[in-house]
Amino acid sequence: MPDFIKKLYKKYEEVIKYVVFGVLTTLVNLIIFKIFDKILGADLFLVTNVIAWVGAVIFAYITNKLWVFESKSWRGSTVIKELIGFFGARIFSLGVEEAGLWLMVDILKFKNMSGFEIFSFKFDGNFIAKLIMQVVVVVLNYFFSKFVIFRKKKKK
């Protein structure tokens, strides 16, 4: 690998890892959302979203702790502090997502969009709204994780 690519990667390693695991977390979220959308029906999209959120947040905490922000401490007090901050921030972003979904699906009538299909996968209005809100949530969650939850302590 050329030196300039190595230097670039090193400089942006954390962001690159966050994006990779963010994409994986988003996929976990979207897959769970789609499964429960089929099980519960399109009218319960907000409930389906919460179920998908729980699965994605568990996945995200583990991957963010271990590989993105490399928080190595497993001391009880550290883990509890991280979990409270992580879930608290994610609850906030869930509220933003739920409000955005409600606005797009019910008020802006995304639910009436017929959407399109790719490889037998239906991108209906609810799912398109979900994708849009995922972008907003990923950005919010990065800032919470980077600057609040897993922030590096300054060395004295």
Identify the notable features of this structure and list them briefly:
single chain, 156 residues, mainly alpha, two-stranded antiparallel ribbon, globular
Descriptive account of the structure:
The radius of gyration is 18 Å and the shape is globular. The longest helix has 38 residues, at 3-40. It has 156 residues and is mainly α. It is built from four helices and two strands. A hairpin with a 2-residue loop joins strand 1 (116-118) and strand 2.
Tally of contiguous helical segments: 4
Q: Please give the radius of gyration in angstroms.
A: 18 Å
Q: How much of the residues is beta strand, in percent?
A: under 5%
Q: Strand sequence of the main sheet, in spatial order? A: 1-2
Nearest-integer average pLDDT: 88
Task: State the end-to-end CA separation.
Answer: 36 Å
Number-wise, the strands total 2
Percentage of residues in helical conformation: over 70%
Which sheet architecture does the biggest sheet show? 2 strands, antiparallel
Query: Which class do the helix and strand fractions yield?
Result: mainly alpha
- Could you say which overall geometry the principal axes of the C-alpha atoms support? globular
Order of helices and strands: HHHEEH
Contiguous low-pLDDT stretches (5 residues minimum) are none
